[in-house]
Amino acid sequence: MTEKIRNTVVIAVGNQKGGVGKTTNTIQLAGALAERGRKSLIIDLDMTSGATKALRAPTDGWNSSFELLTGAESAEDTIITNDESEVALPPNIHLVPSSRKLAELDTFLVQNPWLIHQNLLIEPINRLRGKYDYVFLDTPPQKTKTTIPALKVADFAVLSAMPDHLAVSALAEALSDIVAAQRHANPNLALLGVILCAVPRPKTRLATALVSYVQETCVDHVGMTLKFRTEISRSVVVQEAQRAGQTIMQYQGDHPVADEYRAWGKEFEERLAAIRQKSGVAETGEVANA
Ligand SMILES: Nc1ncnc2c1ncn2[C@@H]1O[C@H](COP(=O)(O)OP(=O)(O)OP(=O)(O)O)[C@@H](O)[C@H]1O
Ligand SMILES: [Mg+2]
Question: What is the pTM (predicted TM-score) of this model?
Answer without folding.
Answer: 0.95
